[in-house]
Amino acid sequence: MSDDSAAASVNGQTAQRVATAVGFCAILLWATLAALSVSLSAVPPFQLMAFGFAIGALSGLPQLWSHAQRIQLAAQITPLALAIGVGGLFGYHMFYFISLSLAPPVEANLINYLWPLLIVLLSSRLPDMEALSWRQIGGALLATVGAGAVLANDADLSAQNWMGYGAAFAAALVWAAYSVGARRFTQSVPSVAVSIYCAITSALAFAVHLAVETTFWPLTTAQWLSVAALGVGPVGIAFYLWDYGCKHGDIRILGVCANATPILSTALLAVFNLAAAGPSLWIAAMFIVIGAAITTQ
């Protein structure tokens, strides 16, 4: 290998590590999503989505300040990229917020966080990834046992709760497909495109809100602060960081790191007295985390 080739390889590895670290920052922000969502449980899900994503869209405006930048971005966003971006953001949060409104938040939150495992499994279909091994399949089964323990923990297996659990799993599947799809099909699209996805998602959420929900108004100062935190953090900057990390970092490492999120997220729910988290739920969470970690060993 020539000196130039070796230098290029080192630079490429460094760039990948930086991108992976950027994606990890998104994971830390997402640990706050459940707590902020539950604290805003009085606000209808689609109204909350509309507010949060409107703020999230504004996060990308500094990168689109000039007319030339906007023209360049418009040329780079393909119909497929738009479908993946909007479908992922709108679909995931639609199912996620619905799950929190129908099922106990801790249980719904843990089932939703099967998405890191699903990312690892789906990433095996990427051109630069190897096929699944029996170890990875075993890890998937172990995580499934963890999800089953979540359900077994809840004494109230009402139809509403089951609908919430189903919505939580749908959210996990949509987000995994979005993350892997972004790397596979839209890697050349700059991450600032997320601002466009957020704006469209906000508009769609507002239209659905007007059609099926009763507007919650007025919001208190504390609620507005929570909405702002939601829009700037887990429903704003986090998406730009995650998009960059998935496209240019090591997506399997991000999948493993993301398994810390259910523990952090559940801990925040318990710390702020937004939900009760007993020992069996922590054991279930560990099953999910260990199962996902095994898939990448």
Overall geometric form:
globular
Helical proportion, percent range: over 70%
Radius of gyration: 19 Å
Look at the helices and sheets and give the structural class. mainly alpha
How much of the polypeptide forms β-strand, as a percent range? under 5%
Average pLDDT reading: 82
Q: What count of structural domains? A: 1
Distance between the termini: 29 Å
Could you tell me the number of beta strands? 0
> Which regions contain 5 or more consecutive residues with pLDDT less than 50?
none
Major sheet description: none
The succession of helices and strands, N to C, reads HHHHHHHHHHHHHH
Helices, by number, come to: 14
Can you characterise this structure?
- The protein has one domain.
- Helix content is 76%, strand content 0%.
- It has helices at 3-30, 33-39, 45-58, 67-76, 79-102, 105-112, 115-122, 134-153, 159-185, 194-212, 221-248, 251-257, 261-271, 279-294.
- α2 runs antiparallel to α11 (221-248) and α8 runs antiparallel to α14 (279-294).
- The two termini are 29 Å apart.
